[in-house]
Amino acid sequence: MSSSDTVHFRHNQAILAAAIVAFFGALPVAGARWYLLPVLLVPLAVTVWAWRAGTDADARELRLRALVGQRRISWDRVVELAADPRGRAVARLDDGQRVTLPAVRGTDLPRLISATGQSLPGATG
Hints:
Order of helices and strands: EHHEEEEEEH
Largest sheet: 4 strands, antiparallel
Strand content: 25-35%
Transmembrane segments: 12-29
Pfam family, one: bPH_6
Mean pLDDT: 90
Keywords: Membrane, Transmembrane, Transmembrane helix
Strand order of the largest sheet: 1-2-3-4
Protein name: PH domain-containing protein
Distance between the termini: 13 Å
Low-confidence stretches: none
Domain Low molecular weight protein antigen 6 PH: 52-122
């Protein structure tokens, strides 16, 4: 992989489809009374989250994206990448903080590391 490549990790797109179905399912409830209109905000928020949230990695940094906002972490700050007991990828930073990487599983760690332009220790080819 060249240093200009970015690797994107996103949640399963079935979540997006389920949120759209939930939106249309909530329309009759929201249309019954005016004060039930905010019910539509829940599937709408899930739709935006499913479309936006995840992790982007390139040779310079990690970008952790949520429903609103994002956090950038330079690779210089990352001390360790590992999987937690639930199979999610976690980065330990130089200040001891542990950050769960959205939409990255433990099995995705080799692909994440390849985004840095480096290889795994002991990897061949």
